[in-house]
Amino acid sequence: MSPPRGCSPRGQRCSGHVPYGHWKTTTFLCALRTQGLIAPLVLDGPINGSAFRAGVEQALAPTLGVGDIVIMDNLSSHKVAGVREAIEARGAE
């Protein structure tokens, strides 16, 4: 967002204004069924193991039933202790 060149008197530094970024990470976590999205969760910041486990226990697990299948990739926060147990406690796999 900064200009690539500018003008200033010879021998003086060319100063310019560059806006500062306020970079924030927002994480959206949800489950997908054939009927649509369920258990949406929005976090301020990146996902970590404890936040993912809390999301599974408090938002996803109550919507699961016997025979449901949960698919996750190999993200390290998906492998935290307690996630598999919360899913299997509802009869899902």
From TrEMBL:
<feature type="domain" description="Tc1-like transposase DDE">
    <location>
        <begin position="3"/>
        <end position="90"/>
    </location>
</feature>
<dbReference type="InterPro" id="IPR036397">
    <property type="entry name" value="RNaseH_sf"/>
</dbReference>
<protein>
    <submittedName>
        <fullName>Transposase</fullName>
    </submittedName>
</protein>
<dbReference type="GO" id="GO:0003676">
    <property type="term" value="F:nucleic acid binding"/>
</dbReference>
<dbReference type="Pfam" id="PF13358">
    <property type="entry name" value="DDE_3"/>
</dbReference>
<dbReference type="InterPro" id="IPR038717">
    <property type="entry name" value="Tc1-like_DDE_dom"/>
</dbReference>
